[in-house]
Specification:
By secondary structure, the protein is mainly alpha-helical. It has 2 domains: 6-162, no CATH class; 164-276, no CATH class. The chain contains 14 helices and no strands. It has helices at residues 6-17, 26-31, 36-39, 44-48, 53-70, 86-111, 116-145, 151-158, 162-187, 196-211, 220-223, 232-238, 256-266, 269-276.
Length: 277
Amino acid sequence: MTVLPRKDKEARIKDIANMILPELVPDQLQLLGIADSDIDITGFAEARNHSTPGMALLQLTKHRADAIIAKGSKLYAPKSQDRESQLDYVNENSNILMRQWARLTHLLTHTSPNNQAILRLIDLIIESSVLAGYYAGSNDMLALTDRYVDSGYNASVAKPQKGGQAKAKVTEPVKILVQDMANFVYQEPNLASTTKATLAEAIVQVLQDFSATGNNKSIPALKKFPNRAPELDTVNKWIKSVVKPSNTSSKPKASLAVVTAKLKAAYTTRQIAASLA
């Protein structure tokens, strides 16, 4: 962790407090030694674990945008009557999306009461869209400002994290595959009541069996793991944000054997290999 002078840390905290979703840059927060309590952020984990994470994330984004505007900072206020600020655009588009969601929900629920699976999938699309848009905007801002980043900060903060980022990049296909497996299970009516613990064990078992087949242990994305497959703790962390359907308490919980068999049928050795290529 980089230790910043007190004044520099205070300035950085003020900067991050004006971010809408600082939770999406955890590496930077850690490297700067900034805790969530330093910038008083709450609600992100709850939004990602909500029954409708897309809409919850959208509402959180709008709420935080309003809070930043309310601070009265000139940097985030409208530049003139003819030109809105970036936060105004955030609010406008958030309102549009929420109205469209309400309209879509009304149409689908009145067309058929069995459209919950479709609504859940659309909400996941909204969640992914919010995150993709946030990272796209972050990338474009970096493209404009990165050239002017202080060389001392670049040397002490940016460069030390390259090793960790490289490892994360190599194992990213595994993480994506794990989360896809989890979403598959929770979109299956007969598996919707599966506990996160059972789901994680099933995924680990499927990937361990895959790794033990042929030369799969040599796949670069798996070589970063000591056992050539992600550990249970890692899988639990990766599927934490995957939303488990609500109102499934009355349904029998699927066993580990059943979930594992379903996953192996849906994710064949060839399909897993292609996903990790």
